[in-house]
Amino acid sequence: MLSTIRSRRIPRPSAALVVSFAALFAAMSGTGYAALKVTGKTIANNTVSHKDVKNKTLRPEDHKPNSLGGGQIKESQLGTVPSAAKASDADTVGGQPASAFMLKQPRAFEATIAAKQNFANDEVVGTLADLAPGTYVVTAKLSYENDSANSTSTCTLHVPGGNDETTFTQDTTNSETIMLQQVVSSGAVFAPSVSCESDGSDDIIGTGNIVAVRVD
């Protein structure tokens, strides 16, 4: 019975078929190898240039957050931030430069009124020189004495914009304390001064001062 069974032979593949399968496996294994093995670590630094990347194909998420700095961005070519309406005015506050705020400069100034006897009528008895332009509260204080008969006299604080003056009755036995004050706004350098009336007979100005406090 075994003799009646014929053996079937599998035909040999042709040479063309062998070559076709070899090419197919080579192509598949090559693509798989590249996809599996080529990573960022495989690419040497500085070997991929702008020519290797298609324009406008990189998206924001393709960059590591906060990875681009001044070394990669030419800041001089950046325009004004669209949403910052005052970006071009960021160095000022209300249109004023930073130098207009928190000035490191003297805020109070003082000059002494020296004692003087028998001074001339309307003689300037004290001056605070060279105040810079600005707004000040200027105050003068001095004492006045006259040994002659009772009479009235006037002392004046001379400042830009309007003087302050006071008229008082002289006491032959006691000195008068004189106070003068004025708020001054000046756009130029100025020098407050004090003058007083006198009859030239035993009139005495006691020690006093002129004080200016800048308030702008």
Characteristics:
216 residues; 4-stranded antiparallel sheet; 6-stranded antiparallel sheet; mainly beta; 1 helix
Describe this structure in words.
The strands form three sheets. Strands 3, 4, 6, 9, 11 and 12 form a six-stranded antiparallel β-sheet that branches. The longest helix has 23 residues, at about 15-35. The chain is mainly beta. About 15% of the residues are buried. The radius of gyration is 49 Å and the shape is rod-shaped. It has one helix at about 15-35; strands at about 90-95, 95, 110-115, 115, 125, 135-145, 150-160, 165-170, 175-185, 195, 205, 210-215. The chain has a domain at about 110-215: Jelly Rolls (Sandwich).
Please tally the helical runs, counting DSSP H or I stretches of 4 or more residues: 1
What's the helix-strand series? HEEEEEEEEEEEE
What would the average pLDDT be, to the nearest integer?
79
CATH topology of the domain at 108-214, anyone?
A: Jelly Rolls
Number of strands: 12
CATH architecture title of the domain at 108-214: Sandwich
The SS-based structural class is mainly beta
Major sheet characteristics:
6 strands, antiparallel
Strand content: 25-35%
In whole angstroms, the N-to-C terminal distance is 128 Å
Question: Helical amount among residues, as a percent range?
Answer: 10-25%
Shape: rod-shaped
Radius of gyration: 49 Å
**CATH top level class name of the domain at 108-214:** Mainly Beta
